[in-house]
Amino acid sequence: IIDLETWNKAQKIYKSQSRAFQIRGSQKTPYQATTLLSGLLFCGNCGARYYCKRNTSKNRDKIAPRGYYTCYSRGKTNKKMVIDPACKNKTYFIDDLDKIVTDEIFNLHSDKNYFNEIVNKNKNNEPNKKEILIKRLDILDKELAKIMDLYQLGTIPIELISERAENISAERNSLQAEINSLSVPKEKMSKSEVINTAKIFVQVLEKGTLREKRVLIRSLIDKIVLKDNEVIIHWSFI
Prior knowledge:
238 residues; mainly alpha; 3-stranded mixed sheet; 3-stranded antiparallel sheet; elongated
């Protein structure tokens, strides 16, 4: 399907532990993912992760419904993953969001100037990430203080207070870990490496395994933030 040189390059990237598991929190033996972007998606409104949800039909004659990515806070399927129960951030059909992201990688491959556009856009438009995270920590601390005041007044059941305090604590820990990671210099891919990886991804997209595609995507993207109608890609080479 592809030439030997491209195959060897793909295998080198696929087997590279530094590329395959450079994302914070990744392990050598992660759970078996069933979608292209699982583990990369975060809610831009509440900060929770996104997960894949599939509706099942008991009628075998009906066409299987499309799966979609939704915020844990909105889906409420796992209480430990909920950060803001009132979050109503947008859900995406899996194939629609996958196409948005893969099209961006296609652009890296087909348009050699797109790499520079991404880098320049990040320098000109993206505010200081660490500063934003610290501000969010301050908001959470104030919210936690309010919850403790309500507890002392006895106006809210202890169960609700405990659940909200646990969610805030989980988000604080996640934010603090991300702040700490920003202080550690990360080896970044060169322009030629990025474009070559995008080329390999395009070539294996149709015939490659899901795991191979995910490894290549994770070598290019740190995370994807979904905020209302915006799909914000945090590239690993920025």
